[in-house]
Amino acid sequence: MSTTSTTPYRLAVIVGSTRDGRFGPTVGQWFTALAEQHAGAELDVIDVADLELPACHPNWGTERTPALTELAARVEAADAYVVVTPEYNHSYPAQLKHFIDLHRTEWNAKPVGFVSYGGVSGGLRAVEHLRQVFAEVHCVTIRDGVSFHGAWDHFGEDGKAHDPQGAAGAAKTMLDQLDWWARTLRAGRAERPYN
Question: Structural domains in the chain?
Fold first, then answer.
């Protein structure tokens, strides 16, 4: 077995909610706790609400600020991503899209999974839009995800899920698929760099 297949892969968990009073940290912490138990992944949590992103996109090729350089290095270092997203007006949060668009080649040839939440749709419309966005930056999206319909009813005030088995089972399925894609694509990038 190669070292690439046994070395832990780096998983960036991106919390995309930015609204005041947001529920994203609750869902993000729940997922992160599960992902930490999943063998083989080293986690980096990136909360978009905590980032100081520029109001305008810099032109490609211009020098990045130190903060953006550090952020790009975190995106680049990840072998895989999981986006925790709510649904705002049938789509994803604007700041999440802004964060994605500030990076380009850092995303290339890596897998991305989704944990979504919201009202009756469970954030699935946001995920469908994000699949198109991530395809454009050369990511492979994982088919299976985690979705919380009426999310606020699924968690207690302590942040724990009321039905941990069902949601945890969905998360494990996604993480198992993400593990395969992360390791396979990492090996592919090492053997044949992606242009």
Answer: 15-190 (3.40.50.360)
Question: Counting Cβ atoms within 10 Å, is residue 124 exposed (0-12), middle (13-18) or buried (19+)?
Answer: middle
Q: How many CB atoms lie within 10 A of CB 79?
A: 24
Amino acid at site 115: V
Cα separation, 161 vs 38, whole angstroms: 18
Indicate the helix (H) or strand (E) that contains 43: strand 41-47
The tens digit of pLDDT for each residue in 91-149 reads: 999 999 999 999 999 999 999 999 999 999 999 999 999 999 999 999 999 999 999 99
Backbone φ, ψ for residue 184 (5° rounding) = -65, -45
DSSP 46: E
Instruction: Return the pLDDT at 1.
Output: 46
CA angle 186, 123, 42 (to 5 degrees): 30
Task: Answer whether 61's CB lies under 8 Å from 163's CB.
Answer: no
Q: How many residues does the chain have?
A: 195
Q: Nearest 5°: phi and psi at 44?
A: -135, 115
> One-letter amino acid identity for 114?
F
Whole-model pTM: value is 0.94
